[in-house]
């Protein structure tokens, strides 16, 4: 156990769940080692929502399974409620887990599926009935308690799966892609319902997802993962507005952030200049940059603004494709070397082949250094 971990335990265990330098390695078919999770540290306070977000294969589900006790950690420690649980089985850890596949018992009714986790607890029949009635009321399942899963809609099955997890009084809740099998409308509804229910229970909750909208709307904090590492842990606002590196910047946000390689030039009239290859642009940013620096300019499609007049603070780009998106329109453009995305109000009219002047909003312009890390103004 590390000194830091020991100090946290002795301080009345402030973190409901603590992952301390956790790793999981597998043997590859070739005889090598695959590091599915590599030396991650993460704290979850009681009542907080954390989503593990990242592309497929980044280690999200493996991390969740190590917390649950379904996978043994190769290295590192897992603490739940201040107690080290590495040596405990899944059933001994008192965690509730809901899976991507609902795993409902097909021959049992909804009420029996909800009641099933309670059989191991020493509670009265009256208390079991009270809990089932409460969960069914909260998740709008009262009218289907007598049905078997085969007679339920997908959204109802998902609510039963969630209900079966929350009917107990666990140390924490773990959800693995809980909404991935639902259609868009049901996902939107279930996001709100799950968050509302779990907020009332005030337990640490970990949700694994590759859906950034799900992460942004449900989480207090988001841990963005790549190749077994945590790239950044922050609030949804900071993950979006202050991505720590190019990977996080490119992964978060729809449409994707524009990332443009550039070389810093001598300032013009005190304004930093950037060589984008095909053209140059002045952007009044306040970052500590100097001529010759190789950087990447990052700007969201809604912050690259079409303007009427070209000038030193604009770049020229030609419209290649126009995608209506309801209230907004997405323009795909090219400046000779780079593909750019710009989102405008749907009332803005343009046509394929039209040349636009685009201005960088300096307060929304990110600058990443040669190591792909975000530079602070």
Q: Major sheet, described briefly? A: 6 strands, mixed
Q: How many whole angstroms does the radius of gyration measure?
A: 25 Å
Number of domains: 2
Fraction of residues in helix: 10-25%
- Overall morphology: elongated
Give a short overview.
The protein contains nine helices and 20 strands. With 377 residues, the chain is α+β, with helices and mostly antiparallel strands.
What's the arrangement of secondary structure elements?
Elements: H1 3-10, E1 15-27, E2 33-45, E3 49-53, H2 60-68, E4 75-80, E5 83-84, E6 95-98, H3 110-115, H4 125-138, H5 154-166, E7 172-176, H6 184-201, E8 204-209, H7 212-218, E9 221-226, E10 229-234, H8 236-241, H9 246-251, E11 258-268, E12 271-275, E13 280-282, E14 294-299, E15 304-307, E16 314-324, E17 328-334, E18 339-345, E19 355-360, E20 366-368
Parallel strand pairs: 3-8, 3-9, 6-7, 7-8
Antiparallel strand pairs: 1-2, 1-4, 4-5, 9-10, 11-12, 11-14, 12-13, 14-20, 15-19, 16-17, 16-19, 17-18
Helix pairs in contact: 5-6
């Amino acid at each position: 156990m590390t000194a830091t971990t020991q100090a946290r335990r002795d301080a009345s265990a402030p973190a409901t769940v603590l992952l301390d330098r956790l790793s999981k390695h597998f043997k590859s078919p070739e005889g090598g080692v695959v590091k599915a999770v590599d030396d991650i540290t993460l704290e979850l306070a009681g009542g907080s929502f954390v989503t593990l977000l990242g592309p497929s294969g980044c280690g999200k589900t493996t991390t969740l399974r190590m917390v649950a006790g379904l996978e043994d950690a190769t290295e590192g420690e897992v603490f739940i409620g201040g107690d080290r649980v590495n040596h405990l089985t899944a059933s001994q850890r008192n965690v509730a887990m809901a899976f991507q596949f609902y795993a409902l018992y097909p021959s049992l009714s909804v009420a029996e599926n909800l009641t099933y986790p309670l059989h191991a607890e020493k509670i009265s029949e009256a208390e079991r009935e009270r809990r089932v009635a409460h969960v069914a009321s909260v998740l709008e399942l009262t009218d289907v308690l007598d049905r078997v899963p085969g007679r339920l809609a997908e959204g109802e099955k998902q609510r039963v799966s969630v209900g079966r997890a929350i009917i107990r009084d666990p140390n924490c809740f773990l959800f693995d892609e809980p909404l991935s099998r639902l259609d868009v409308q049901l996902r939107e509804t279930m996001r709100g319902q799950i968050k509302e229910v779990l907020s009332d229970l005030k337990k640490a909750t970990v949700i694994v997802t590759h859906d950034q909208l799900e992460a942004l709307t449900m989480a207090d904090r988001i841990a963005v993962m790549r190749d077994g590492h945590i790239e950044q842990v922050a609030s949804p606002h900071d993950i979006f507005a202050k991505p720590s590196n190019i990977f996080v910047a490119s992964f978060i946000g729809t449409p994707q952030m524009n990332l443009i390689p550039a070389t810093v030039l001598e300032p013009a009239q005190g304004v930093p200049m950037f060589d984008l290859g095909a053209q140059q642009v002045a952007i009044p940013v306040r970052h500590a940059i100097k001529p010759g620096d190789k950087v990447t300019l990052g700007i969201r499609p809604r912050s690259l603004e079409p303007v009427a007049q070209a000038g030193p603070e604009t770049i020229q780009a030609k419209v290649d494709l126009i995608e209506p998106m309801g209230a907004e329109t997405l323009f795909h453009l090219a400046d000779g070397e780079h593909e750019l995305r710009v989102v405008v109000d749907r009332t803005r009219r343009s046509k394929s082949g039209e040349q636009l002047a685009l201005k960088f909003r300096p307060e929304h312009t990110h600058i990443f250094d040669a190591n792909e890390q975000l530079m602070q103004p």
